[in-house]
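Sequence in, structure out. First:
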Amino acid sequence: MEACKRVWIDCDPGIDDSFALLLALKHLAVVGISTVGGNTGLEHTFRNARYVTELAGRGEIPVYAGYDLPMIARPERAKHVHGSGGLGNIMVPELKETPPGEHAVDVIIRAFGHPADLTLVTLGPLTNVAQALLKEPELKHRIPEIVCMGGSVTTGNHNACAEFNIAVDPEAARIVFESGIPVRMVGLNLCRQNEMTMSDVKRLKALPGTVAAFAARLLAYSVNQRRQAQLCDACTIAWLIDPAIIPCALPMHVEVETKGEFTRGMTVCDYREYIGTVPGEDIGRKIGYPVETGEKNVLAAMEFDQARFKELLFCTIKSYEV
């Protein structure tokens, strides 16, 4: 495991963001958290991030509010997935501490004020990061890597081509993907290899403590939506904690489509080099068809160890009461 890796997390909690934060707060050195409108509005994502940090006993970690709306597009939410407040049917109580008033973009710029061993993790739309890059172009030389939950090497969920986080603000995503900052992409093609079930809910309910009870309620809400509960954001954080959870990732050139009538928000992944020869396999695991491509700006996660991930998740939730 990558012990105490320093991270800044930009997120839009969100059920799966909440699981991601619970993992990160136990295993990574979280320097700060910024929030963006996405799964629900900023007033909820900001409050939810603060609630999860306090619940985890890490209220000292600063949480900042960023942009609520995308750069150009009309806002779209995923309340049908996460509930109107973002945490299923959980109503967040009034929080103790007065939140910091500084805008998240300014804090991100300051956090990466000079080249440092600090990874930027993005779990929502990329609006905050894109705005920070526009405001301080030198950030592209100061952020060593971005680990991004977004996009897909294959199909989308917002529509046939586009994943939600990218589709919500394609212009922002394009700025980030074209910045020259190395991107590790955890897309839907990877996350769909994980499925949480009612058996997992029961396992959480059997654990003691308030964090486990919170996690069980969140997961139950997600599983009962009658769609695959993937916990995409938690899968992303898990890659940083235990790289063996994602045993295969492929470098490729990725563009973000911003104008297509049917493809707006698509991460156009050039995997021609990896065209598979085995029946039923579109994407192989080694270069078999060399082609001239653009710069390989993305390392795309391809394979997922679900058993290893679940063991990490349940052990982490249990550890909050030890």
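Second:
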Amino acid sequence: MPRRPVHRASSLRPRGLNAVAICMALVVAAGAAGSQTVATPVTELAVSAPVLAEPAPQPSPDFSSTATTPLDYRRDAAEHLYRTYPTRIYKGRLPPLIASVAVFEVHIDSLGEFVTSRWVRAPWHRPDIMADIERIAKQAAPYPAPIHMPGVVYTDVWLYDQSGLFQLATLTEGQRGK
């Protein structure tokens, strides 16, 4: 059975420490030979400014949400969708029989950008409606930035009429009787 090498304390020392010691020795040696070196005036040294990361873009004040919970944010997001797609909203009370009821979850980051989505209750019988909801949710970005939350995951119920128009349960006007 081969023997494992024995690790000595000196081999466990960080390698950068040797480089620091060598640099310090060179600085001391340069200082000792002071009469032979020419000092460069400070005004001639090129000093580069430190590179700082750009601050994250801030949402405009008129395009932000003051909601403090996902439930409160859901109303702001629904109003945003209604403003973004006014021709797709069903006006008035929905008919008694609708094409689809879908529950869709959307994750929005702190700047209001769409991150991801998830079906809670998908209308599997209508893949065209599923694709439409996914497309609308993605293309509606940026959403109002949730300034009191580091991002938000909200859920809404999408109510689709046979005509392809919809209402969100958060802002629905209800359904007509039979």
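Remark: The beta strands are 64-65, 100-109, 114-121, 145-146, 151-160, 166-168.
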